[in-house]
């Protein structure tokens, strides 16, 4: 049973959330990934379920328990994540993209483990050709009747400027900015909500507290979405 102490501001609503990193195979034993813990996305999934929403969480490889009452789909690569999200997007009211999706993948994953095959110092160093991954958030936002799309932007500098640019480039109503990678894996965070009207900062708190605030904000936006 999910906590009864949160107001059910998302009762009757469906949320689709991506979380964690993606893993892009180089060969059967190696891959490209990143240090996203998935904590923010899992906290949002929990907060949304507490608020009465029907929640589907599409998670890359993370070490986190599934929040109570949340439907979880595990994926590895960015393309797996898109394949999981795309058929569900139109039937959801909200899409929250917290995943740290790998921007590139090896153009061709090797079928077998790549071997050094030489004496030390004489090895041929493999050169990885990369291909660009699909932008999951931009793809969903470009659907004919998109759910309310919420993007995240982890930046190391000029947070609000980059968040504004991303909001326009991906054509989404709301981007949530945070100053990573200082926050990666940590329990506390500071978020800034960037929409067409301006910015609102959520003061430093643990991720579940911030997630509950964000859920309230999203519930408010849903009352006038689509406009
Ligand atoms: N995103 C996505 N699919 C991608 C890349 C990003 O869905 N292939 C989503 C992320 O989940 C996040 C938002 O887009 O909600 C912004 O991701 P970010 O990596 O900050 O933006 P990029 O457009 O990839 O730009 P850059 O990494 O160069 O800052
Ligand atoms: Ca990126």
UniProtKB/TrEMBL annotation:
<keyword id="KW-0456">Lyase</keyword>
<dbReference type="GO" id="GO:0071513">
    <property type="term" value="C:phosphopantothenoylcysteine decarboxylase complex"/>
</dbReference>
<keyword id="KW-0479">Metal-binding</keyword>
<keyword id="KW-0210">Decarboxylase</keyword>
<feature type="binding site">
    <location>
        <position position="170"/>
    </location>
    <ligand>
        <name>CTP</name>
    </ligand>
</feature>
<feature type="binding site">
    <location>
        <position position="166"/>
    </location>
    <ligand>
        <name>CTP</name>
    </ligand>
</feature>
<feature type="binding site">
    <location>
        <position position="113"/>
    </location>
    <ligand>
        <name>CTP</name>
    </ligand>
</feature>
<dbReference type="GO" id="GO:0004633">
    <property type="term" value="F:phosphopantothenoylcysteine decarboxylase activity"/>
</dbReference>
<comment type="similarity">
    <text>In the C-terminal section; belongs to the PPC synthetase family.</text>
</comment>
<feature type="binding site">
    <location>
        <position position="103"/>
    </location>
    <ligand>
        <name>CTP</name>
    </ligand>
</feature>
<feature type="region of interest" description="Phosphopantothenate--cysteine ligase">
    <location>
        <begin position="15"/>
        <end position="227"/>
    </location>
</feature>
<keyword id="KW-0436">Ligase</keyword>
<keyword id="KW-0511">Multifunctional enzyme</keyword>
<dbReference type="GO" id="GO:0010181">
    <property type="term" value="F:FMN binding"/>
</dbReference>
<keyword id="KW-0288">FMN</keyword>
<dbReference type="GO" id="GO:0004632">
    <property type="term" value="F:phosphopantothenate--cysteine ligase activity"/>
</dbReference>
<feature type="domain" description="DNA/pantothenate metabolism flavoprotein C-terminal">
    <location>
        <begin position="10"/>
        <end position="220"/>
    </location>
</feature>
<dbReference type="GO" id="GO:0046872">
    <property type="term" value="F:metal ion binding"/>
</dbReference>
<feature type="binding site">
    <location>
        <position position="152"/>
    </location>
    <ligand>
        <name>CTP</name>
    </ligand>
</feature>
<comment type="function">
    <text>Catalyzes two sequential steps in the biosynthesis of coenzyme A. In the first step cysteine is conjugated to 4'-phosphopantothenate to form 4-phosphopantothenoylcysteine. In the second step the latter compound is decarboxylated to form 4'-phosphopantotheine.</text>
</comment>
<keyword id="KW-0285">Flavoprotein</keyword>
<dbReference type="GO" id="GO:0015937">
    <property type="term" value="P:coenzyme A biosynthetic process"/>
</dbReference>
<dbReference type="GO" id="GO:0015941">
    <property type="term" value="P:pantothenate catabolic process"/>
</dbReference>
<comment type="function">
    <text>Catalyzes two steps in the biosynthesis of coenzyme A. In the first step cysteine is conjugated to 4'-phosphopantothenate to form 4-phosphopantothenoylcysteine, in the latter compound is decarboxylated to form 4'-phosphopantotheine.</text>
</comment>
<comment type="similarity">
    <text>In the N-terminal section; belongs to the HFCD (homo-oligomeric flavin containing Cys decarboxylase) superfamily.</text>
</comment>
<feature type="binding site">
    <location>
        <begin position="134"/>
        <end position="137"/>
    </location>
    <ligand>
        <name>CTP</name>
    </ligand>
</feature>
<comment type="pathway">
    <text>Cofactor biosynthesis; coenzyme A biosynthesis; CoA from (R)-pantothenate: step 2/5.</text>
</comment>
<comment type="pathway">
    <text>Cofactor biosynthesis; coenzyme A biosynthesis; CoA from (R)-pantothenate: step 3/5.</text>
</comment>
<keyword id="KW-0460">Magnesium</keyword>
<protein>
    <recommendedName>
        <fullName>Coenzyme A biosynthesis bifunctional protein CoaBC</fullName>
        <ecNumber>4.1.1.36</ecNumber>
        <ecNumber>6.3.2.5</ecNumber>
    </recommendedName>
</protein>
């Amino acid at each position: 049973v999910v906590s009864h102490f949160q107001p059910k501001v998302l009762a009757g609503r469906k949320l689709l959330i991506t979380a964690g990193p993606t893993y892009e195979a180089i060969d059967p034993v190696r891959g490209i990934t990143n240090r996203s813990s998935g904590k923010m996305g899992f906290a949002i999934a929990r907060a949304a379920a507490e608020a009465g929403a029907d929640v589907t969480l599409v998670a890359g490889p993370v070490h986190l328990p599934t929040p109570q009452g949340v439907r979880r789909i595990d994926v590895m690569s960015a393309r797996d994540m898109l394949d999981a999200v795309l058929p569900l997007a139109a039937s959801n009211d909200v899409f929250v993209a917290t995943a740290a999706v790998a921007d590139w993948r090896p153009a061709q994953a090797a079928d077998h483990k790549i071997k050094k095959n030489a004496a030390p110092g004489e090895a041929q160093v493999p050169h990885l050709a990369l291909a660009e991954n699909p932008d999951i958030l931009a793809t969903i936002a470009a659907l004919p009747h998109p759910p309310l799309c919420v993007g995240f932007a982890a930046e190391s500098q000029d947070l609000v400027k980059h968040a504004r640019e991303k909001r326009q480039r991906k054509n989404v109503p709301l981007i949530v900015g945070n100053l990573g990678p200082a926050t990666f894996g940590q329990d506390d965070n500071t978020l800034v909500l960037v929409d067409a009207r301006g910015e609102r900062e959520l003061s430093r708190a643990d991720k579940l507290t911030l997630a509950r605030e964000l859920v309230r904000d999203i519930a408010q936006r849903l009352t006038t979405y689509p406009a």
